[in-house]
Amino acid sequence: MSKQVPTVPIYGIPFSKMSMDETVNYLTEAIEQKRQTHVITANPIMVMSAVESQDYYKMMRKAELIVPDGAGVVWAANYVGTPVTERVTGFDLLHRLMQEGEKRKWTAYLLGTSQEVIEAAAEKLQLQYPQVRIVGYRDGYFGADQDAEVVEAIRQAAPDLLFVARGAETQEPWIAKYKKQLGVPFIMGVGGSFDIVAGKLKRAPILFQKLRLEWFYRLLQEPKRLPRMLVLPKFVVKVVRDKENVKKPRSTT
């Protein structure tokens, strides 16, 4: 992670303290300079995965920038006395970078979800940001045997921005594994963002966002997410119980 990014460690994960505007400025400069940056928009579920798995933790630590996407992360940073400036959500960051791309004629590649959703997302983003050329897209339903072919297609397209939406378990590890081969300046996992862009799911209303209940709104739309969501109360209990140790350094070996 770059020296100039102020961070707060939560169970060894260095979360950026930059505001959304500062994050966009930082990333715009990195993209313009072709300085590869893998951004993880992390939530409590990912932090708990990193707590439970050393491999997942090491993978997260390889990212150049980790931003506090989940409201639970914002709460935890505040609770342990080193608050982050604000939530920096993947959905908003995607749109802010597309806006920057409009001014700078960037190109983008979309990877993940179903064929139907990725096609609709590509079409809507292209209409919304006509100066950003979408140089390719494909669904996320491919196995390890097709990884080389997918990586090569992205390399050939040579986008400035690569947005990846795959399952929670595969999204970030896949990016971390192939980022050097991909050679793309900016790579970010965007989870369910394409579903919202495509109109398949609705974004939580502003009131839910302000009350930090976006997770609950999403659960109402997708009840199958309940087992994952049960990690949230575990995270809160753990942070409260470990208050003095949450910020302690952790070894990557």
Automatic annotation (TrEMBL):
Pfam families, sorted: Glyco_tran_WecG (PF03808)
Which reaction equations make up its catalytic activity? Answer: UDP-N-acetyl-alpha-D-mannosamine + N-acetyl-alpha-D-glucosaminyl-di-trans,octa-cis-undecaprenyl diphosphate = N-acetyl-beta-D-mannosaminyl-(1->4)-N-acetyl-alpha-D-glucosaminyl di-trans,octa-cis-undecaprenyl diphosphate + UDP + H(+)
Family stated for the protein in its record: Belongs to the glycosyltransferase 26 family. TagA/TarA subfamily.
Q: Domain of life here? A: Bacteria
Coiled coil: which residue ranges?
none
Protein name as catalogued: N-acetylglucosaminyldiphosphoundecaprenol N-acetyl-beta-D-mannosaminyltransferase
InterPro entries membership = TagA_TarA, WecG_TagA_CpsF
Q: List the pathway annotation.
A: Cell wall biogenesis; teichoic acid biosynthesis
- Per its database record, what is this protein's job? Catalyzes the conversion of GlcNAc-PP-undecaprenol into ManNAc-GlcNAc-PP-undecaprenol, the first committed lipid intermediate in the de novo synthesis of teichoic acid.
Key words, A-Z = Cell wall biogenesis/degradation, Glycosyltransferase, Teichoic acid biosynthesis, Transferase
Q: Name one GO molecular function term.
A: N-acetylglucosaminyldiphosphoundecaprenol N-acetyl-beta-D-mannosaminyltransferase activity
Q: What is the lineage of its organism?
A: Bacteria, Bacillati, Bacillota, Bacilli, Bacillales
Enzymatic class: transferase
What EC number(s) has UniProt assigned to this enzyme? Answer: 2.4.1.187
> Which BP terms in the Gene Ontology apply to this protein?
cell wall organization; teichoic acid biosynthetic process
Tell me yes or no: is Metal-binding among this UniProt entry's keywords: no
Report whether Lipid metabolism shows up as a keyword of the record.
no
Which species does this protein come from?
A: Paenibacillus catalpae
